[in-house]
């Protein structure tokens, strides 16, 4: 029988439409204005704090929907946007600095939709709002760190070559290597020039001192700066990925700055904490011979310094750094055999060799794990750059039981959430140089809502124009095309809501408008072909059959070429271009489905298997 679908094909089309609209449904429920509470360093919010927040809101007569823990975070759902900022200020003052209080927009999706994994469409920075960070890399710290590496390299090289030196230290204009006699200096000069070709070596001798001054070459300085920026960008991208932000922008601006845009973030405070943290580890020996009370009084032995544990108790550490976080390639949080939180560390080959060589000769000695973080001081230098302050905290002191290799563990951590946060920072990478946020811009929901309204009007007006034109020109077949257009838009939204990484941006809305036009274009080709078949004297049933069959190749060719273009745009584009490419690609697939298979099913229901003299086309 002509123009008849088997039952399974009808069932498939109906099922696709139902699933598409089902997953598009959460977008109708909107979002609740909310305030989000999370503990610093990953600590959890307890029921006591929730009760405190409820009492505070009731005392200040602020109406709220709920105060509860959702997805591991405390969320205060409010009734209107105007209460967000006052509520944030109240909770911040009440809970203090141990908690991070941030504004949020919480999806109001019903529980039965959440149960099947349906959620609202993620909106980009230009639609939903979000956070824009401008971060500056501390190049002086990067160069100082490279200089420290030079000191270690020269000591190791000279020892291996068995060239005796009296001292290697950082100097104002480079690294100074001292010797006791001219013959050793000449031997060292020849060796170092041959071994370290990236540095320049000059003799700096006087009557009472024989020394070599080592400096980075201009090419090496430029390479160090470029490496600091490139590596920090890579690490920040890793940290953004750890946060699970869809379609972030992480790119270089100028010689020392990095731009980060986080659209639709669920936790802006946590994003700032993770991205802004210049955190790493240092492994150092504990000065077991030092008297802690003398050190607290200011009498610290030469070559050592005073540090503090998490509980504030003092501990004296040797200044020599055994290993830094630069060599960490993996970090996973977990639990030890006594169910206490720990972080399992994996080192690269060079770090494993250093750790093995040092611990081999220091079995039985205490070694400390020092957590180092750079925080803004609020002050600026003569060039207007913000100054950072180094904060140190001893998170673990353990006795070296045996020679360590590329894998070991850190214990003594307070809770599992803190272990998870520490592992995240270390896994994402230790920043090559400290960075600080020099500009933070929040794009509010009001501006995003204006863009949404304008984009929605563009889609609505374009859709209405087509809904009016098609029935006027193609009569009943025009109504079939209108049905396909509406279904197409619904399935596009449903599919994008189902894809975890898909984000709708303003250019993405333009892609939807374009696919609406392309969808009706396919129907126009089919309907015009049916008209031609009717003019050539074919029966209505044969005209419908031939119209769909003959127009298929033309529609496929046009859509496949556009799909290839969308794939190329997505592959090489960034930001807004990718957003446009995603909606365009999804729209092409859904429009072909609705315009060819969907309308054919409806046409078969209305006209298939019937004796017809004319068609309303």
TrEMBL record:
Residues 2-103 form the SecD export protein N-terminal TM domain. Keywords: Cell membrane, Membrane, Protein transport, Translocation, Transmembrane, Transmembrane helix, Transport. InterPro entries: SecD (IPR005791), SecD-TM (IPR027398), SecD/SecF_arch_bac (IPR022813), SecD/SecF_CS (IPR022646), SecD_1st (IPR048631), SecD_SecF_C (IPR048634), SecD_SecF_C_bact (IPR055344), SecDF_P1_head (IPR054384). Residues 229-287 form the Protein translocase subunit SecDF P1 domain. Forms a complex with SecF. Part of the essential Sec protein translocation apparatus which comprises SecA, SecYEG and auxiliary proteins SecDF-YajC and YidC. It is found in: Cell membrane. Residues 307-433 form the SecDF P1 head subdomain domain. This is Protein translocase subunit SecD. GO terms for biological process: intracellular protein transmembrane transport; protein targeting; protein transport by the Sec complex. Its main location: membrane. Belongs to the SecD/SecF family. SecD subfamily. It is a multi-pass membrane protein. It comes from the Bacteria. One of its GO terms (cellular component) is plasma membrane. The chain crosses the membrane at residues 455-474, 479-499, 505-527, 548-573, 579-603. Part of the Sec protein translocase complex. Interacts with the SecYEG preprotein conducting channel. SecDF uses the proton motive force (PMF) to complete protein translocation after the ATP-dependent function of SecA. GO terms for molecular function: protein-transporting ATPase activity. Residues 435-598 form the Protein export membrane protein SecD/SecF C-terminal domain. The keyword Transcription regulation does not apply.
């Amino acid at each position: 029988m002509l123009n008849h679908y088997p039952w399974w094909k009808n069932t498939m089309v109906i099922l696709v439409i139902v699933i598409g609209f089902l997953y598009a449904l959460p977008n109708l429920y909107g979002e609740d204005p909310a305030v989000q509470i999370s503990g610093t360093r990953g600590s959890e919010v307890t029921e006591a704090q929730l009760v405190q927040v409820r009492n505070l809101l009731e005392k200040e007569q602020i109406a709220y929907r709920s105060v509860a823990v959702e997805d591991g975070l405390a969320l205060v759902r409010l009734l209107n946007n105007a209460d967000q900022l006052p509520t944030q200020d109240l909770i911040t003052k009440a809970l203090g600095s141990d908690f991070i209080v941030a504004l949020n927009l919480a999806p109001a999706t019903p529980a039965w939709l959440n149960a099947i994994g349906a959620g609202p469409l993620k909106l980009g920075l230009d639609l939903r709002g979000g956070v824009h960070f401008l971060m500056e890399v501390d190049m002086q710290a990067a160069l100082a760190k490279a200089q420290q590496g030079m000191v270690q390299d020269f000591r190791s090289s000279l020892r291996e070559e068995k060239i005796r030196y009296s001292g290697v230290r950082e100097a104002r204009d480079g690294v100074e290597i001292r010797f006791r006699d001219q013959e050793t200096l000449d031997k060292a000069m020849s060796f170092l020039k041959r071994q370290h070709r990236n540095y320049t070596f000059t003799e700096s001798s006087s009557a009472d001192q024989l020394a070599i001054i080592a400096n980075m070459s201009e090419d090496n300085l430029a390479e160090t700066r470029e490496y600091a920026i490139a590596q920090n960008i890579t690490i920040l991208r890793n940290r953004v990925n750890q946060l699970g932000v869809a379609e972030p922008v992480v790119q270089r601006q100028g010689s020392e700055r990095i731009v980060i845009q986080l659209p639709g973030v669920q936790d802006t405070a946590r994003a700032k904490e993770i991205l802004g943290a210049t955190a790493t580890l240092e492994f150092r020996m504990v000065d077991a011979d030092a008297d802690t009370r003398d050190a607290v009084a200011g009498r610290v032995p030469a070559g050592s310094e005073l540090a503090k544990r998490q509980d504030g108790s003092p501990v004296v550490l040797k200044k020599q750094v055994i290993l830094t976080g630069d060599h960490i390639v993996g970090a996973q949080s977990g639990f030890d055999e006594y169910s206490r939180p720990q972080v399992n560390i994996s080192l690269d080959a060079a770090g494993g060799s250093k750790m093995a060589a040092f611990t081999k000769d220091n079995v039985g000695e205490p070694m400390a794990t020092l957590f180092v973080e750079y925080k803004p001081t609020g002050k600026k230098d003569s060039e207007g750059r913000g100054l950072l302050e180094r904060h140190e905290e001893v998170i673990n002191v353990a006795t070296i039981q045996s020679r360590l290799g590329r894998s070991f563990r850190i214990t003594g951590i307070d809770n599992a959430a803190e272990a998870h946060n520490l592992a995240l920072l270390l896994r994402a990478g230790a920043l090559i140089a400290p960075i600080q946020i020099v500009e933070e811009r929040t794009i509010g929901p009001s501006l995003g809502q204006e863009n949404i309204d304008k984009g929605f009007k563009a889609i609505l007006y374009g859709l209405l124009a087509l809904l009016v034109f098609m029935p006027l020109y193609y009569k009943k077949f025009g109504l079939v095309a209108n049905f396909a257009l509406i279904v197409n838009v619904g399935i596009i939204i449903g599919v994008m809501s189902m894809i975890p990484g898909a984000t709708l941006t303003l250019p993405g809305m333009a892609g939807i408008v374009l696919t609406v036009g392309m969808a009706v274009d396919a129907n126009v080709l089919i309907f015009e072909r049916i008209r031609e078949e009717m003019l050539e004297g074919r029966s209505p049933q044969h005209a419908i059959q031939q119209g769909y069959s003959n127009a298929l190749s033309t529609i496929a060719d046009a859509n496949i070429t556009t799909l290839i273009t969308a794939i190329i745009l997505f592959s090489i584009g960034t930001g807004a271009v990718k957003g446009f490419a995603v909606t365009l690609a999804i729209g092409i697939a859904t429009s072909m489905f609705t315009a060819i298979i969907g309308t054919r099913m409806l046409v078969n229901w209305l006209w298939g298997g019937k004796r017809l003299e004319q068609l309303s086309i």
